[in-house]
Amino acid sequence: MPDQVLITGASRGIGRAAAERFRKEGWRVINVARGPCPVPDVVNVRVDLAVPGWEPAVEAALRDGANQGPGRLCVVHNAALYEHDDALSMDADHLRRVLEVNVVAPLVLNRLARPLLTDGSSLLYVSSTLGEKAVKGVASYVTTKHALIGMMRATCQDLAGTRVHTAAVCPGFTDTEMLREHLGTDPAVRASVAGMTTFGRLITPEEIAGVLYTCATTPVLNGAVIHANLGQVER
């Protein structure tokens, strides 16, 4: 049985790059997202994590992999809603919707995966540089990315003695569809954001995928919060 990885939101961006990297390394890859992953030989479970009731489809995909024999399981909590909102004006239903995808879904997936977590398995969280600071206008994203780091730290403690590990990867400005949608089409805006790293460029999704693969295969990183941001320039 090959090792298997379940990645939420592997239809694009960091998730797609992670699917490609794990497939290259011989892992069985399950994409849990509304859209399909374009990487060949990926198992696609097409659900909307914002709508409760998706659990049976994910359980079935995990069980199919487990039935092929014991192997490591990695879960990458990557899917996220990124909304423009304000901490003093957004309504509760708006925050609940973002929480459902960004925080509740990882909690549920951990519970579903728990019986299949053999020695060397891992639960990985894709947080953000905004998981430990804030900027104006994205309050729900900032709040939930902070929460993911807290969940990772709780996961680390609750897995003590199991030989299963966890980590949180916090990407900086990564050249994904989500970032491009946020920045718009003005080249000057894109150049300004690229200038906010000490390398003067955006991070590639493949670079973050490499960090995630390292975390999945390196238990000594258990409990780590890893800022993968090319040395972000603080302003």
From TrEMBL:
Keywords: Oxidoreductase. GO terms for molecular function: oxidoreductase activity. Transmembrane segments: none annotated. InterPro entries: NAD(P)-bd_dom_sf (IPR036291), Sc_DH/Rdtase_CS (IPR020904), SDR_DHRS6-like (IPR051122), SDR_fam (IPR002347). It holds the Pfam family adh_short_C2. Belongs to the short-chain dehydrogenases/reductases (SDR) family. This is SDR family oxidoreductase. The lineage of its organism: Bacteria, Pseudomonadati, Myxococcota, Myxococcia, Myxococcales.
